[in-house]
From TrEMBL:
<feature type="coiled-coil region">
    <location>
        <begin position="75"/>
        <end position="216"/>
    </location>
</feature>
<keyword id="KW-0175">Coiled coil</keyword>
<protein>
    <recommendedName>
        <fullName>Replication region DNA-binding N-term</fullName>
    </recommendedName>
</protein>
Length: 308
């Protein structure tokens, strides 16, 4: 068995301290003074100490003042009753009757002792009930503190719920704005697609025109070659052919200039197409970012509606 950490001297010192304060010594007052221990063990050791120290310590038996008053009153009443009974018995009884009366007196004394012990037990029970009541009061204080903490936590939760509701309204507003921006970007993208389509059609027309001019230039080169051949074959037609050649060269220069201008226009159109494609890609990138943002907002305000 594990030895108790509370020594006999600790119990004796606590009992003497209680007596010095003018209070009655009992198991619960000893436990309160020491801070731990079983009340029945503490009062048993204190009682043994009192008995071992004789009559000088006997006066310090741990009987509460209320119990002492009850016992004293009860004993006085019993003693008065017994004295009266003895007087009556002394008058009317003989020696044998007196012997029987003495036995009855002894029985009454034993009954008085039993009742005194019962009062001591009642006092111990009262102390236990008082201690239980104190424990219940302490528990009530703890429960009240817990209730206050729960009320505070509930208030915080309600405040957080209001904040979450406000945040959800803000997110809904942002989501609506994002959707409007997405719709606007879709419309802008469609417009850019239409412009790009028209530009591509224009480029195709210019390419077809350039191809025709190139073919015409080839034909003119072939005609010029034929004219030169004719000039070499017939000197008499040289003057006429030279005039034709000069005209063809002029026409060819004009065509070359026209081809150069058309090529510049084609290059300009191709640049515009590249710019349109770059702008379309930029719009597509903005649309993708907006879709990602909308998806992030929707996932943040997903099931449960919680937002931290």
């Amino acid at each position: 068995m594990r030895e108790s950490p509370i020594s006999t001297q600790d119990i004796v010192d606590a009992g003497n301290s209680i007596l010095a304060d003018g209070r009655a010594v009992n198991g619960y007052s000893l436990r309160n003074a020491i801070g731990s221990g079983r009340a029945d063990r503490l009062i048993r050791i204190w009682t043994e100490h009192v008995e071992l120290n004789g009559s000088s310590a006997a006066g310090s038996i741990s009987i509460p003042v209320r119990a002492q008053s009850l016992i004293s009153s009860y004993v006085k009443r019993q003693e008065a009753s017994v004295n009266q009974l003895l007087q009556e018995l002394a008058v009317v009884l003989n020696e044998a009757a007196q012997s029987a009366a003495l036995e009855e007196i002894d029985s009454l004394k034993a009954s008085v002792e039993q009742q005194r012990n019962a009062l001591l037990d009642a006092d111990l029970l009262i102390d236990r009930l008082e201690q239980t009541n104190q424990d219940l009061e302490n528990q009530l204080v703890v429960e009240r503190d817990n209730s206050d903490q729960m009320r505070t936590a509930l208030a915080r939760m309600e405040d957080q719920a209001r904040k979450d509701s406000s945040a959800l309204d803000v997110l809904n507003s942002q989501l609506q704005e994002a959707q409007e921006q997405a719709s606007s970007l879709h419309e802008s993208l469609e417009d850019e697609k239409m412009v790009l389509g028209r530009t591509q059609d224009e480029v195709l027309r210019l390419e077809e025109r350039v191809a025709g001019l190139v073919e015409k230039s080839k034909q003119q080169d072939a005609a010029l070659l034929d004219a030169r051949r004719d000039a070499q074959a017939s000197r008499e037609r040289e003057a006429t052919v030279n005039g034709q050649i000069l005209q063809l060269q002029r026409d060819r220069d004009v065509d070359v200039e026209l081809i150069t201008r058309l090529r510049l226009e084609v290059g300009t159109a191709a640049t515009r197409v590249s710019q349109s494609e770059a702008e379309a890609n930029a719009y597509k990138g903005q649309l993708a970012q907006l879709n990602d943002r909308v998806g992030g907002l929707l996932s943040t305000t997903g099931p449960g509606g919680s937002h931290e």
